Predict the structure.
Amino acid sequence: MNTLDAIASRRSIRKFLDTPLPEEIIRRILHAAILAPSGKNRQPWRFIVIKEDKRAQMVKVMRAGIERHKARGERTGSSENSARIMEQAPVTIFVFNPYEHKKHKRSTSGLMNVVDVQSVGAAIQNMHLAAQDLGIGALWICDIFYAYDELCDWLGQKRQMIAAVSLGNPDEQPDARPRKTLDEVTVWL
Ligand SMILES: Cc1cc2nc3c(=O)[nH]c(=O)nc-3n(C[C@H](O)[C@H](O)[C@H](O)COP(=O)(O)O)c2cc1C
């Protein structure tokens, strides 16, 4: 698939068929991730792949975090929907930044962290474009932050959790979501 076609046709997929993804496909998507550019070529990404056998446990941990917020009377946004999607997708890949502690506070490493997070974003976008090329549905998920501590503990991670990506065979073909026009977001000097 042409790169611009992949960019234009990609959609966030929130309904997946109940069919497993071959490991070869997961590896191809991860391989696209590690080809992303990164500041100082630091490659600040580490991936944890959760497949069907650990999926129920993952969702239980995610829901525990959501419940923690609810118990405090806090809003939980779209997190319950995201948990339902993670429950359906055959694969969810967590992405961590190995260079930053999970309790990141403003520090001298702050600017480097901004660079690293951009690099991880490029890797995650590559995953989405590779998935699109392979006919696989993908959803970028930051609602995992509602269960930040719970998921980090469960995954045994002390590093900065950036996002998760759920993958599977798509069971929907959503229309394109609206975008601001180029003129709204661009200034030509
Ligand atoms: C950083 C980031 C975090 C996101 N987190 C979530 C999420 O937690 N749950 C969800 O359903 N979608 C999530 N999305 C998907 C966005 O809602 C989606 O990209 C946006 O609405 C545009 O739709 P499109 O991807 O189909 O073009 C996220 C996307 C990005 C880039």
In short: The first helix runs from residue 3 to 9.
